[in-house]
Amino acid sequence: MATPTSSFANLSPSLLANPELCTIDTCPLDLASFEYIPSLPGNALYVSLFALFLLVQLYFGIRYRTWGFLAGMIGGLLLEILGYVARIQIHFNPFSEDPFLMYIVCLTIGPAFLAASIYLTLSRIITVYSPTLSRFQPRTYTIVFVIFDFFALLLQAAGGGIASAANDDSLSQIGINIMIAGVSWQVFSLGLFTVACLEFAWRVRKAREEDLNQQVEFVELRRTTRFKVFLWVLAGATLAIFIRCVFRCAELSEGFDGRLANDEVTLMVLEGAMIVIAVMLLTALHPGPAFGGSWADATWSIRGAKKGHVVVEKQSA
Fold it and tell me: TM spans, by residue (predicted)?
């Protein structure tokens, strides 16, 4: 919460001791969560958009049985909705700590769930092209990046809780530092994921036709426009979340009293709009129809590879 920076000579000692008793009429915004009143229309718009995306994701997820992808999207979208609902509550009562805590935690960790859904797609893309072209087993990518994502989520959630509930600047800074570590780890994970995708794309580009045709059941799928566009959509969604994470790192590095933390326009663009873009892309071209209904069929692991021979075995997702 903002640190008082102006004179409070005429302010009641009880209000100074407990800002949650304040109202707009009795206290300055120096004692509030932000140095501004969150926009009601802007935050309500984001709540509406994320709620709409959630309904569409539920429809596609159930229809095409993309359960793992759906779980990540539901988790991320629910947290985004809760985060912006909290900002609406702050609009009506900027001095309450509970909505601020909910806002910080939900909007900080929400994108980690969305990133997990993105990570689940790489192993399936590898299967569609050819597991023999992959540097690692397809499922290895999913396991590694989901573990990375979970670690980032834990750091962000723990840091957000500590920072928001702290009663002194020292403890608050510890929480902020933990949050920065979590978001920074997420930036690293997304960057590494991008490198892994680019490396596999290079291997596909240099591959022989016979290597690509080993997965005969997916040859026609790879040639479809919707699948090719989905690959670009995935890249766009990853970039949008990456930009948001970089912004969040910069914002947290300044603390809750910093310029970025108290600039709603920047927040609405680099936090809210980036996540809207990512979710819109992943909803408009959902992996269910993009994979032609073969999402479950593309869930494979590679075992027992010897002398270039690969045994492909189906696994559950």
Answer: 44-62, 69-88, 100-122, 143-166, 178-202, 229-247, 267-285
